[in-house]
C-alpha cells in the first residue's frame, strides 16, 4: 500500500504527535517527516513568468520514535547547545564535546539585493490534519 498524503492525526504533547503512516506504508523507526503549513508561496520563473513550483512552509521536522502498522508516534528533533551554539543532535555533541567545537553551515555567495524572503519555517502551531511529508528514510 502506497500513500503520499500523510497527516497529523493526534497531538500527544509539546514534543510528540501521531501521523497516519506506519509499517504498511514502509515507514521505519528514525524516518523523518516535515509538518507543513497549509499555505506556501508560488515560485515564479523571472523570464517566463510561469509558476514553476511552490515553496512549502515547514512547521517542524519530527522523527519516528514508535511504529505501528497504520500509524507512527513522532517526536521533535533534539538540538543540543554547546556554549552559545546549538547543535542538531546529541551525537553531534558527543562528537564535538571533547574538543568544544561546533559545525556551522557555509553561507552562499549571493547578491543580497535579490533576496526575496520566503523563509521555509512557519510560526503557525501544528494542528490535527496538517500534512506530513516523509523526507528522510532510515538506513534500516
Count the strands?
10
> How much is the radius of gyration in Å?
18 Å
| SSE-based structural type | mainly beta
The biggest sheet amounts to:
6 strands, antiparallel, barrel
Strand order of the largest sheet: 1-2-7-6-3-10
Q: Percentage of helical residues?
A: under 10%
CATH top level assignment: Mainly Beta
Describe it for me?
This protein has 140 residues and is mainly beta. The chain has one helix spanning 90-96; strands spanning 6-11, 16-19, 32-36, 41-44, 51-55, 58-67, 72-76, 80-82, 85-87, 131-136. The chain has a six-stranded antiparallel barrel with strand order 1-2-7-6-3-10. It has a two-stranded antiparallel sheet with strand order 4-5. The longest helix is centred in the middle third of the chain and has 7 residues, at 90-96. It is globular, with a radius of gyration of 18 Å. The two termini are 19 Å apart. 14% of the residues are buried. The mean pLDDT is 79.
